[in-house]
Design goal:
Elements lengths: L7 E4 L13 H11 L11 E2 L1 H7 L3 E7 L3 H16 L11 E5 L6 H11 L2 E6 L10 E4 L2 H11 L2 E2 L10 H19 L7 E5 L4 H11 L7 E6 L5 H7 L9 H10 L2 E4 L3 H10 L1 H7 L6 E7 L7 H11 L1
Parallel strand pairs: 3-11, 4-5, 4-7, 5-6, 8-9, 8-11, 9-10
Antiparallel strand pairs: 1-10, 2-3
Length: about 325
């Protein structure tokens, strides 16, 4: 018996419309080669939930927790480029400072941890008193203040949220996300027919959408899940943009590749509730042959430990 969970489903009317290439294959191959060469990195295979699958009337159900290497990969590339621009040796990263901020869905602890492992300072701008561990110097302010100070001080600003004129770092973060998604998909016994992924600022969802197309054959249907009251992606799809809209690159991908948007307290409970409701089940195309993968994101700072190996391998 599936416990009832309140949910709202919106089928994307633009699904399948052609669009621009957001994450080029060349960038993915570069990210994959670097990240998979990090020492000690162990991908997490999805966990099968056969009893829940049977209760929901599905062929299979897997739950995957993606520990994204995206921040560590993007910071490593950004540091290499900056040292080359300054004509500085690889062993002098201490002269470089990164800046990050709350307000766009970034995991400041993951950014700060990756910066520490690369040997650089990190200035974290926060507005609510949260402290991203002991790996950053905390300053008062938000996204705009962080960008302004970074420009004035010569710091390198880091965010997964892409906007006009700021796309390179978010794209690298998304390519790192895509590597983690590819590993989760490769660990499944059979490719899924449906994938549920959290929305957030959209980076992981867009990376998932891109990797699903790369599987070949019939592309699995992507459902983007967001909590009630914090659903900017669903709002954008419905034509009611939020005060903090999704990132530019992420939305360029998701506006055409998301099959549906789901609003629920949690992704797994929401999609199981949708599978139990007749009209939503039909709309999503769920039946006894469906293979469902539900992805969650854990921007584990420990993933940034690979950044140290990346720096040593790529900068030496």
């Amino acid at each position: 018996m599936i416990a009832p969970v309140p949910f709202r489903l919106f089928m994307n009317p633009r699904h399948g419309v052609p669009g621009v290439v957001v994450l080029p294959e060349s960038g993915f191959r570069r990210a994959s080669a670097e990240i998979r060469g990090w020492p000690g990195r162990l991908p997490r295979p999805p966990v099968a939930l056969p009893e829940l699958a049977q209760a929901a009337g599905l062929a299979s159900l897997h739950l995957g927790q993606v520990a994204s290497p995206g921040y560590a990969y993007a910071l490593s590339r950004l540091l290499r480029a900056e040292l080359a621009r300054r004509n500085m040796p690889a062993g002098a990263p201490g002269a470089v400072t990164f800046a990050c901020a709350q307000g766009r869905g970034d995991d400041l602890a993951a950014i700060a941890s990756a910066a520490r492992r690369l040997g650089v300072r990190c200035m974290a701008f926060v507005e609510d008193g949260a402290v991203p561990g002991n790996d950053a110097q905390v300053l008062r302010g938000g996204y705009e203040e962080a960008m302004r100070h970074a420009g004035q001080q010569g710091w390198l600003f880091v965010s997964a949220w892409a906007a006009a004129g700021y796309t390179e770092v978010p794209r690298d973060i998304m390519q790192g996300d895509r590597v983690a998604v590819s590993e989760a998909l490769a660990a499944l016994p059979v490719a899924p027919t449906h994938v549920v992924v959290p929305g957030g600022q959209g980076g992981l969802a867009a990376a998932t959408a891109t990797q699903l197309r790369a599987l070949g054959g019939a592309t699995p249907r992507l459902v983007v899940a967001e909590p009630a009251g914090a659903s900017p992606l669903m709002g954008e799809a419905e034509g009611r943009p939020a005060q903090a809209p999704p990132g530019l690159l992420a939305w360029q991908e998701l506006e055409r590749s998301a099959f549906a948007f789901l609003e629920a307290p949690d992704a797994l409970g929401g999609v199981l509730a949708a599978a139990a409701e007749a009209s939503s089940r039909v709309a999503l195309g769920l039946d006894a042959t469906s293979r469902l993968l539900v992805l969650g994101q854990d921007a584990d700072p420990a993933e940034g430990s690979a950044g140290q190996g990346s720096q040593q391998g790529g900068l030496a």
